[in-house]
Design brief:
single chain; 346 residues; alpha/beta; S-adenosyl-L-methionine-dependent methyltransferases; TIM Barrel; 8-stranded parallel barrel; 5-stranded mixed β-sheet; 29% strand; disordered N terminus
Length: 346
Amino acid sequence: MPVDSTRCVAPLISRLRTRPASLRGKVFVLLGLVAAFRASGLGVLVPAYFYPAQGSAWDSLNLAAQRVPLIAIMNPNNGPSTSLNADYSRAVTALRNAGGEVIGYVYSSYTMRASAEVKTDIDRYDSFYTIDGIFVDEMTNDSDAIHVAYYEELYHYIKNKRPSYLVVGNPGINTSANYLLRPAADALVTFESSTGYAQYVPDPWTQTGPAIAFSHLCYTVAAAATMTNYVQLALTRNAGYIYVTDDSGSNPWDRLPAYWEMEVAFVEQLNREAASNQPPVLSISLQTNGATRVDVTGAPGRYVLQASANATVWQPMTTNVSATGNFSVYETMATDRPVWLYRAEQ
């Protein structure tokens, strides 16, 4: 890709998971509300190679990030360019505030680009923008030790910048497991094409790893019905992220698809269906500073964590869109009440 730039809650109380706990004389009750979802979920990985002017498609990404796990790949000029761009800075901040993540595009020319040049681009992203990681394009897919070592070096360089950075490599086709095992990446794009997704057969080794480690990108997909079919296929192929677009040409990532809203709604629907077989489980612990930590484990998707003192009136504490279904919330008010209840719902 070297180019520029209604809530459904189970109605039966018997379906609630409840676990009481007592900390320092305080009683907490944890309720995981079951929505009618399926066993696995999806996020959307968007090559956002379009300029973030006011009122641009980046605003649509902000809205989508409040509904589904979303990662946008920023690409100001086949990389970060040589100076900060205020429009990109605004767009990145807005998307991250909406719950999305942003990773910066660099290209590697299948190891033919000097690693020093790639590192310079990484440095610039890290200096110019508050982002969540790096997208390494044109990654090799063989087991050549020199090739794997090239990307492993870049991986550690990125992680030394910030251990929390996500490193996504893009071979665009089936690849060797070595790139994840070394590691040379945290996640891989194992399909990127305008054709062949219906017939695509992923490597067997990708079917046993965590789904969030694999992404599929499909372009020149004209029909919305084909898009929904491809999204469903991504689930069966253990892909944690999918993006389907009707865009085409030399840069098939320079706009969102005409069916973007339908795509987001369909991913959101699948995530809701996923939780019927994986209802959220809540646990609590008291921190040394007196705060209460609530850990939520469930299916990927959007969660609202709520609290109550009487199980009748509930107040939202936080909304979290999680690609893994796992997140934690720290709360200080719970220890001031004799009884405090929590529940999470999608």
